[in-house]
């Protein structure tokens, strides 16, 4: 069975690199260094114009926990409606209550705003108190998939827990493995977990083309991390070898 590769792309450049390298789907986001937040309207619109593969937009108003107040939930619903209007195929959502349970009401509001777009429940799932119970609730909500590292720092480290979720899901929902995935570990992860979709940022350092550098700012880097076409390609090759 062909394995699907989703790339977490931080901006338009990364979205293009993800498609060029052989990614099947993009999770479009901002602030990956902080765990990811919602990109701007302009970035979403430009990325949608630039690539043909499906775009799922991360809906997360800030870094930190996944416990949101009414104003934050309203803001997320507005962002979701924007994504629908811009022609995105899906959104990536998640919300928890203070006890580490899936916040059903918040998620229902966001799903209603999605107006038929596909829904991925993001790694808030890795912060729940009871993974088995939370997975059933996410399935009941009608989500298409759930992104998880197995509750560990990386998906390879949480491979056994991911396998347990795949077994529990029993094809009722897709378990999307993500966090710390690269070409060196994805084949073994696929074998252990039994999963068929994989999520990676595939980032490398992009060197700034600036010739002028203010000497007063010496030590302040103008380079940045971005999706790298060749890293995506090596992941694609590794997955296609399974």
In the CATH hierarchy, the architecture is Alpha-Beta Barrel
Q: Could you name the CATH class?
A: Alpha Beta
Largest sheet: 8 strands, parallel, barrel
Low-confidence stretches: none
Helix amount = 25-40%
- The span between the termini is 8 Å
Q: Please compute the radius of gyration using only Cα atoms.
A: 18 Å
Q: Mean pLDDT, nearest integer?
A: 96
Supply the number of structural domains. 1
Count of alpha/pi helices: 8
The tally of beta strands, per DSSP, is: 10
GO cellular component, one term: cytoplasm
Main location: cytoplasm
Subcellular location: Cytoplasm
Keywords: Cytoplasm
What would you say this structure looks like, in words?
This protein is an alpha/beta fold. It has a single domain (4-204, 220-240), classed as Alpha-Beta Barrel (TIM Barrel), CATH 3.20.20.380. The protein contains eight helices and ten strands. It has helices at residues 12-20, 41-50, 70-85, 104-114, 131-141, 159-169, 186-193, 229-240, and strands at residues 4-9, 25-28, 55-58, 90-93, 118-121, 145-148, 174-178, 197-200, 203-206, 224-227. α1 (12-20) packs parallel to α2 and α3 (70-85) packs parallel to α4 (104-114).
């Amino acid at each position: 069975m062909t394995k699907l590769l989703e790339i977490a792309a931080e901006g338009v450049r990364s979205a293009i690199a993800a498609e060029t390298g052989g990614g099947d789907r993009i999770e479009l986001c901002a602030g990956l260094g902080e765990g990811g937040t919602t990109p701007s309207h302009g970035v979403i619109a430009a990325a949608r114009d630039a690539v043909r593969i499906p775009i799922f937009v991360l809906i997360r108003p800030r870094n930190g926990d996944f416990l949101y107040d009414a104003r934050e939930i309203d803001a997320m619903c507005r962002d979701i409606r924007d994504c629908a209007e811009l022609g995105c195929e899906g959104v990536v959502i998640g919300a928890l209550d203070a006890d580490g349970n899936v916040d059903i009401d918040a998620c229902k509001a966001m799903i209603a705003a999605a107006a038929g777009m596909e829904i991925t429940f993001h790694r808030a799932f890795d912060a729940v108190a009871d993974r088995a119970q939370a997975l059933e609730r996410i399935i009941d909500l009608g989500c298409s998939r759930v992104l998880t590292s197995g509750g560990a720092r990386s998906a390879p480290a949480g491979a056994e827990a991911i396998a347990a979720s795949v077994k529990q899901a029993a094809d009722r929902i897709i378990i999307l493995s993500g966090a710390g995935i690269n070409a060196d570990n994805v084949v073994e992860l696929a074998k252990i977990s039994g999963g068929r979709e994989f999520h990676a940022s595939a980032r490398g350092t992009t060197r700034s083309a600036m010739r002028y550098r203010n000497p007063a700012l010496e030590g302040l880097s103008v380079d940045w991390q971005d999706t790298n076409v060749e890293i995506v390609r090596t992941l694609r090759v590794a997955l296609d070898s399974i």
